[in-house]
Amino acid sequence: MHRTLGPGLLESAYEQCLAYELSRAGLAFQVQQPMPVRYKVVSLDCGYRVDVLVGGRLIVELKSADKLLPIHEAQLLTYVKLAGVKVGLLINFNVPVLRDGIKRMVL
Questions:
Q1: Residues facing residue 11 across a β-bridge
Q2: Residue of 58, 46, 54 whose CA lies nearest to 30
Q3: What is the pLDDT of residues 48-83, one digit of tens each?
Q4: Domains and CATH numbers, the chain
Q5: End-to-end CA distance of the chain, in Å?
Q6: Long-range CB contacts (within 8 A, 24+) of 100-104
Q7: Do residues 91 and 102 lie in contact, with contact meaning Cβ atoms separated by under 8 Å?
Q8: pTM value?
């Protein structure tokens, strides 16, 4: 995707392309998966959404930013905790070489 499209597009464009590629690969996934906040005994719908949840086991948070910031990492770690999964990928498409924009995080 990144080699074809390059950097500079909105996150939503990369999200749709990733969904297309995951579908072609036959992987189960959800796009814009609602992520309720659990507080004590209640589940609150605060409008949070995971960009891509792959197989119920991996969260992929997409960015198209000048650089990844600590708040992006905190967001991913929070989503990982809320979803009860162990692994997340933070992918920033706004880089010349995609491998420089990927950060794997494990809870």
A1: none
A2: 54
A3: 899 999 999 999 999 999 999 999 999 999 999 989
A4: 2-106 (3.40.1350)
A5: 28
A6: 101/63, 101/68, 103/68, 103/73
A7: yes
A8: 0.90
